[in-house]
Amino acid sequence: MRSIRPTALRLGAIGLVSALALTACGSEEDPKAADKPATSQGADKGDSGLSELPELPADLTDRLKEHGIDLDEWEKGGWKNWDKDKWLREAEDFVNPVIKDLWKPERMEEAKDPVQTIDTKAATDSDAGVTDPDPAPVEAQEEKKPYWKHAAPVGKIFFDTPEGAAVCSGTIVKDPNNPGKSNLVWTAGHCVHAGAEGGWFRNIAFIPAYNREGKSPAELQNATADEVAPYGQFWADWVSTSGEWINGTTAATSGASYEYDYAVMHVKPEKGGKSLEETVGAALPVDFDAPSATEIGTMGAWGYPQAPPFNGVQMFKCLDKPVRLSLTPSAPTMFRIGCTMTAGSSGGGWFHVKPDKKTYLVSNTSIGPAGSAGWLAGPQLGAGAEELFLQMSEKYGSS
Q1: Is residue 4 part of a domain?
Q2: Considering its fold, how many domains does the chain have in total?
Q3: Is residue 1 assigned to a domain?
Q4: Are strands 141-142 and 154-161 parallel, antiparallel or unpaired?
Q5: Helix or strand or coil: residue 247?
C-alpha cells in the first residue's frame, strides 16, 4: 500500500528512548498484579464552549429505544444496520452496549485500518498557512517486549464501521479528578466518529498492551487470551470528540477537520470492577500547553500500524523532532514528524518529556501522506481539547 524508506533516527532521539517512561508497575510474570499507582460524550465546540454533557447511560435499553432500536435485536446483529436513520451522529447520541465475546481473535484479525491520508501539496498550494518542508522519514522501531512492561498505557482499539471491523491505537491518560483510577483513553476522532459524512462507530473496545509478547499473526493463532489481552477488554461507554471533527468544517483539502482530530473515551471493563489505570498500573498526563513545533524537542509516536509492510499486531514507535503542517489558515498548525508507521497507528499517542522529567501525551496520530509513507501528523491540543477533557473528567471521573 505504501513504500517504506528506512533512515537513521535524528539527533536527540536516543536520549528520549530512556526518558520516555511508559512502563507499568508489577511483575513480568503477572501483569495483572500491577501495583496501584500513587467519558465520555460531548462535542468540543472550540472557543464557543462545550454543550452540557449528559449522564453516563445507566439504562442502555432506554437509550436505544429513544432511537427506535431494540437492545436484544442490536446484540443479535442489529448494530450492522448502517441506514442513515439508524446511524447516530450527534454528540449526545453515542451508545455502545457491550456485546459479550464479540471481539474474538479471529474477528480482531479481520479488522482493517481506517486509512486517513492527505495530499499536502494541495494544502500548501492553497495558501493554507505555515508549513515546513517534509521531514526526512524515520524508520519505525518495534517496542521492546513484553509490551505491558515497556509501554503499558499504549493499546489497540477495535470498532465496527459500515465497511467492516476496524482498528486504531490509543493511550491510557490520567484523570485529574480521579487520581490513580482513570478510565480515560485518548485516541483520534476518526477512530470513533465518521465525521461530516456519518456518525458514531460501534462496538468500540480498547485492549491495553495488546499482544503483550509481540507474537506474529501466525503465532497469535495459538495464543492464550492473556497473551492477546493481558488486562482484558475495556468497552467505551461514553466518547467525546470535537465539534469540528463531527461537522468536518475546517480542512479545505478534504472536508475533514484533522486539526481537531482527537477524542477521549471513558471505558469500563468487560469483566471485573477495577478502573483501567488500577488494572494496568500506568497512565500518562496530557499536556495542553506544549511548546510549538519550532520550540519543542524530540517527540515519540507509538501505535500498532497495520497497512503493509506492517501486520497490525505488533507495537512500533518513531522518535523525531516535529515540524509544522498547516492545512487551513484559520486552524492551528499540526505537529508533523518523520515516521514510516502506516494506518492502524491512527489515534496512537505522541509523547514528550517536560522539564519536570515526566512523560506527557501531547498529540495523537491523525494523518499520513497520500500515496507513500514517511511522515505522520497530529493535532496540537489547545484550549478546546483541554475544555473537552476537563468536562469529561469532572462529569465521569468517579464513574
Answers
A1: no
A2: 1
A3: no
A4: unpaired
A5: helix
